[in-house]
Amino acid sequence: xxxxxxxxxxxxxxxxxxxxxxxxxxxxxxxxxxxxxxxxxxxxxxxxxxxxxxxxxxxxxxxxxxxxxxxxxxxxxxxxxxxxxxxxxxxxxxxxxxxxxxxxxxxxxxxxxxxxxxxxxxxxxxxxxxxxxxxxxxxxxxxxxxxxxxxxxxxxxxxxxxxxxxxxxxxxxxxxxxxxxxxxxxxxxxxxxxxxxxxxxxxxxxxxxxxxxxxxxxxxxxxxxxxxxxxxxxxxxxxxxxxxxxxxxxxxxxxxxxxxxxxxxxxxxxxxxxxxxxxxxxxxxxxxxxxxxxxxxx
Amino acid sequence: xxxxxxxxxxxxxxxxxxxxxxxxxxxxxxxxxxxxxxxxxxxxxxxxxxxxxxxxxxxxxxxxxxxxxxxxxxxxxxxxxxxxxxxxxxxxxxxxxxxxxxxxxxxxxxxxxxxxxxxxxxxxxxxxxxxxxxxxxxxxxxxxxxxxxxxxxxxxxxxxxxxxxxxxxxxxxxxxxxxxxxxxxxxxxxxxxxxxxxxxxxxxxxxxxxxxxxxxxxxxxxxxxxxxxxxxxxxxxxxxxxxxxxxxxxxxxxxxxxxxxxxxxxxxxxxxxxxxxxxxxxxxxxxxxxxxxxxxxxxxxxxxxxxxxxxxxxxxxxxxxxxxxxxxxxxxxxxxxxxxxxxxxxxxxxxxxxxxxxxxxxxxxxxxxxxxxxxxxxxxxxxxxxxxxxxxxxxxxxxxxxxxxxxxxxxxxxxxxxxxxxxxxxxxxxxxxxxxxxxxxxxxxxxxxxxxxxxxxxxxxxxxxxxxxxxxxxxxxxxxxxxxxxxxx
Amino acid sequence: xxxxxxxxxxxxxxxxxxxxxxxxxxxxxxxxxxxxxxxxxxxxxxxxxxxxxxxxxxxxxxxxxxxxxxxxxxxxxxxxxxxxxxxxxxxxxxxxxxxxxxxxxxxxxxxxxxxxxxxxxxxxxxxxxxxxxxxxxxxxxxxxxxxxxxxxxxxxxxxxxxxxxxxxxxxxxxxxxxxxxxxxxxxxxxxxxxxxxxxxxxxxxxxxxxxxxxxxxxxxxxxxxxxxxxxxxxxxxxxxxxxxxxxxxxxxxxxxxxxxxxxxxxxxxxxxxxxxxxxxxxxxxxxxxxxx
Lengths: 298, 489, 292
Prior knowledge:
The structure holds three protein chains of three kinds. In chain B, 37% of the residues lie in helices and 17% in strands. Chain B is an alpha/beta fold. The radius of gyration of chain B is 23 Å and the shape is globular. The mean pLDDT of chain B is 96. Chain C contains eleven helices and ten strands. Chain C has helices spanning 45-64, 67-83, 85-94, 99-117, 123-127, 160-170, 186-196, 212-221, 237-243, 255-259, 266-270, and strands at 27-32, 35-41, 129-130, 137-145, 148-152, 175-179, 205-208, 227-231, 249-253, 273-281. Residues 288-292 of chain C have low confidence and may be disordered. Classes of the chains: A alpha/beta, B alpha/beta, C alpha/beta. Chains in contact: A-B, B-C. Chain A binds chain B through residues 8-11, 13-15, 17-18, 21, 24-32, 34-35, 38, 218, 221, 224-228, 249, 253-254, 256-259, 261, and chain B through 1-2, 4-5, 8-19, 125, 129, 280-286, 288-289, 292, 320, 327-328, 337-338, 434, 454-455.
């Protein structure tokens, strides 16, 4: 499929000025607690390590469904995110809950493999029980100017996912270059059928940042106004504390509004974030600053 | 855009709880005197007037009114200080006094920001992050010039003018005091400064800092009062230079008063800046710049981007983005850290703004206002914009000095340059385009003293600020800002 | 009643914001009337190498700070030095100066720091230019810091000489490696303590004690040093020859200049800066009329 990708300009200083304003928002008391609970519900609890084992994944799934017994009414995380060979384990551990199973696929994290391998990778993940697939785009092809290749690849993976599995497309923004490139990659992914666009694999630095997220949210907003369709967004990597996560959420609120303040359309890819959010919730409820000895580390 | 697509909603789901800056650490007196010759003294007029908090109409303190005898006393102190020791002090020692003032402003920045907010109505976020830091920065920057003037004006043998009479407005009270006092002191002059009637408090706190810094008595005198006090200063024979920031109307009357005299002058007056968005601009960032350009400080900014020119091909898209962005503006208690739009400075100013809003409607322009909750007490104006405005509308020609944006369209570069320049004002302008060569074309042709390209409302002590035509004369800030306070032989 | 035993100070060198000993382990002794009063590090070329690595790493972040920020940090150095005046005066008198001369040296040093601090955000206003080229271009010249500067500081003036050789160099954004006075090294290391209390980022200023004879060669031949500042030195011609390997820019100043008020001048700062000229097209409008 041949498509013209309109080159939309992004001004770096302007983006960073906007972020500067967002980070000055002060969240206190009820609004802070509500924000923290929303964040919890939006976390994709993630383990993507070479040394992942069955027991590691099972423990993570237990944590996903039992975040912190001291506060019984906390929302559960949105999903657990694992490698394809751990999907069946996760799926079994989570079958009694509403926590989804997300799988990375398509030769994550580099994406340097043939289309056929990526398709098979995706198929297996779905057959083993993945509700969502997090794929990576071919950054090398992007930099070579082969935008149609990048587009077609995403469309092919979405085909495999069908209507039942939602596709998150990882742009790996840390490898893309300027904000203009990130905007363009967002346009390609959105038009090729992404259900979510996601910033990073979490394997390189920089991972997600507020300015990068804003660029992607603007692409989503323009798409919504042009077509009426919503696309989700997921920043991943580098969001390890609640204060930062609240700034992301505020960014979503002021850019896209109420419709996106929901786990169906916004996620955090994080592992240690959950504990910090729990500590902040505890502080809000008790009034005391917390120590991480009182929260399980999985 | 299809009419079946629901506009995005930004409110009603996750509202921000109040996040008020605390006021319990302030040290404010109930009553202030005049700061003359290094001390606070009672006004000879014995008159006092209240300064109120425009967000709730409560009185904060009583301020002294300086009448003729008080003005004479202040000018005499400044004269004696100048002739006696200030003009003879080695340059680098003078510099160190000014550094002290800069330092102390930084030390007391939180207190100063809170006082600025309750006295004037501007959001705490702005006084905290912009007003007070810039005030300190001005003193720092100019302190460094005190012993380096021969490099700014080689061969010209620069000498101070003597006593400067300075009259400042209510929109950036402490910052304006810094813009005036810092260069005056750095160049070796002494000062009599009158803050605006409705916002005297931070100037008086600055007087306390000046005392603490042990500045020799009489070098800086701060006298409070209404417009009549300013008039007395303007007409005083022993003042060598008048610096005024305020409306063009008052500026003209001051110039009439000093016409034919030896007094030097700088005037920083009104504006009706054009903010121009081309179709090849980075649109979302341009929206941010437009919003900042007119709603920053409730539009009480002489260089506000109050006339928006949108290239016609992107008109609908840009208006939609503008209105969406406005939904996230929060109007409310200026002490709340989340407030974007604070109170209008005074009852009079609010009446004036509302008058223009009525004119705009009568003239046939289409109004859009942010639908926000307005507090019951205090002076408030919701962010407003008018579309279908034409060049001849009063709201496109006259300075409103409030959060009201007049929007017009254009087709070509030439057209917009002509429309932008078609005004007696010439203080500032903004240009939004991704194309560098177009930026420089516009900036070279716009008749304004400050041109912002792909940004707006940026200020720095090193950057000269001032207008063309009826926006005034003279520059403040930068190397060029020194000139007004020197005689070059 | 027994006398209280003083805790004696060990003088180390200053590299990357820390105070290591010289990697060579060697020392030389300072004596007053044949009685030793301090053991000073005899730095080696490896110390110099480490210092240059630190200075190179620190250069870009320092240069990228706003001029305002840099000037505030330098002003802070002056504040810190003023508050430690007594310590420095005592140290200078131990090294043989009269109390009066020491006090004057302190005052001049503090005021000199403040003088140069004030230039950070003004240099480009005085020396930069917008050039009216005869084509439709916006053309401007700005001055930028050079990089890592090697400094040989004065032997005769232990504090003022040191301050004069460091502050004008770093105000524009350069970082430096400084060889302290061989004869009066103590004030240099104490000044390093002042620097480390002043928000100056690690590596921007590095100070080594030792002999000029040993350190002149490595500092003049190091390929990652961009320029040399020679303050009051009897310079061997070999040093200049070494420096030509990477075409280091060399600037020299003598003692008379250092003690004079004439030293307070922006031209010294400029000696450690490079100029860059940028061109950008200005769209020219070919229609002659104002009609639209």
